[in-house]
Amino acid sequence: MSSKAEQIRKLNDTFRQSFMGGQIMITNGTDRLSPTAKLELFDAIKGYDAFTEDNDPYGEHDFGSLNFQGDRYFWKIDCYDNDMLYHSPDPANPKLTMRVLTIMMAEEY
After folding, report:
1. What is the average pLDDT value for the chain, to the nearest integer?
2. Number of domains in the chain
3. Domain containing 97: what range?
4. Where are the beta strands (DSSP E) in 1-109?
5. Dihedral pair phi/psi, residue 96, rounded to 5°
6. Of 16, 38, 58, 74, which has the fewest CB atoms closer than 10 Å, so is most exposed?
């Protein structure tokens, strides 16, 4: 694995595990959960570690799916430039990147 992919993975993991250093977006389906259920889902995403060659082919830890309260949820980290207009010119450089973690019910995809 390249050192660039390792740096992206480290930054993605740090963001996902702390929900700090970027923006968190949730879809309407996720927002309909009770406040307690949302916190439980967020904790499950923070602790997610089911990365495989199939769901993480580039080793960047930018996507996951999990079952929660009988429903399937996806989470995805996208890397934008600091103006949030385009993809980041270098996702391995936190000074050039705004990370956005989107959480959605699979049926909303």
Report:
1. 97
2. 1
3. 3-108
4. 22-26, 63-68, 71-80, 98-105
5. -110, 5
6. 58
- CA dihedral 69→71→77→80, nearest 10 degrees, is -120
Strand 63-68 to 71-80 pairing:
antiparallel
Query: Other C-beta atoms within 10 Å of 29: how many?
Result: 15
pLDDT digits (tens, 9 = 90+) for 5-26: 999 999 999 999 999 999 999 9
What are the respective helix, strand and coil percentages of the chain, to the nearest 5? 35, 30, 40
Please indicate, yes or no, whether the overall pTM of this predicted structure exceeds 0.85. Answer: yes
Identify the burial level of 62 via C-beta atoms within 10 angstroms of its C-beta, where 0-12 means exposed, 13-18 middle and 19 or more buried. buried
What's the pLDDT at 1?
A: 60
Cα separation, 5 vs 9, in Å, equals 6
How far apart are the C-alpha atoms of 76 and 78, rounded to whole Å? Answer: 6
Tokens standing for residue 4:
């660039």
